[in-house]
Design a protein that fits this description.
InterPro entries: ComplexI_NDUFA12, NDUFA12
Structural class: alpha+beta
Strand order of the largest sheet: 1-2-5
Oligomer: single chain
Number of helices: 3
Region (Disordered): 125-171
Order of helices and strands: HEEEEEHH
Pfam family, one: NDUFA12
Organism: Piaya cayana (Common squirrel cuckoo)
Distance between the termini: 87 Å
GO biological process, one term: mitochondrial respiratory chain complex I assembly
Number of strands: 5
Radius of gyration: 32 Å
Length: 171
């Protein structure tokens, strides 16, 4: 390398900081970079910076889970070293195994509940039919009552209209 090129590179590094270094890529094609800690021409120390260039995405389109958790931990500086492909694959296999085990346990629990319901060991959940919506003026009743009939434990919004008011809509 010529001395002029070395001088320009040193000047650029001093003025703009060191260039970004490609650290790795994930299975989706996202590229992960770092800019090492450096000192500016004014003497200010800039800490290490880590970032990702997402494949075919705009910055505002990121979704939770778009990047492997291992890489996300590296970007957020929760881990010092970037993850390896083997580590990512091992963790992905582990997550898939856990999903399958959870599915098996839920299925087994459903069968056990059905057996207990059938044998009468456990009462089945009560099925209630709610008419209307709680915010409706006549929740669960055909007409509002002129007398206050609800108590604290059975209060229904809009179920009582004071006498002489002419209804809840004339306010």
């Amino acid at each position: 390398m010529s001395w002029a090129r070395q001088a320009l590179r040193a000047l650029r590094a001093r003025l703009f900081g060191p260039p970004k270094e490609l650290v790795g890529t994930d299975q989706f094609g996202n590229k992960y970079y770092r800019v090492p800690k450096h000192e500016t021409h004014a003497g200010q120390i800039i800490p290490e910076r880590r970032f990702v260039e997402a494949m075919n995405r705009q910055p505002y389109q990121y979704q939770v889970g778009d990047f492997p958790t291992e890489w996300e931990a590296w970007i957020r500086k929760k881990r010092k070293d970037p993850p390896t492909i083997e580590e990512i694959l091992r963790n992905e296999n582990y997550r898939e195994e856990m999903k399958q085990k959870i599915k098996d346990v839920l299925e087994k629990d459903k069968l056990l509940q059905a057996k207990e319901y059938k044998e009468g060991l456990v009462a089945e959940p009560a099925r209630t039919h709610v008419k209307g919506h709680a915010s409706a003026p006549y929740y669960g009743k055909s007409e509002p009552s002129p007398d206050p009939t609800s108590t604290a434990s059975t209060f229904q919004p809009g179920s009582w209209v004071p006498r002489g008011s002419g209804g809840s809509h004339n306010k």
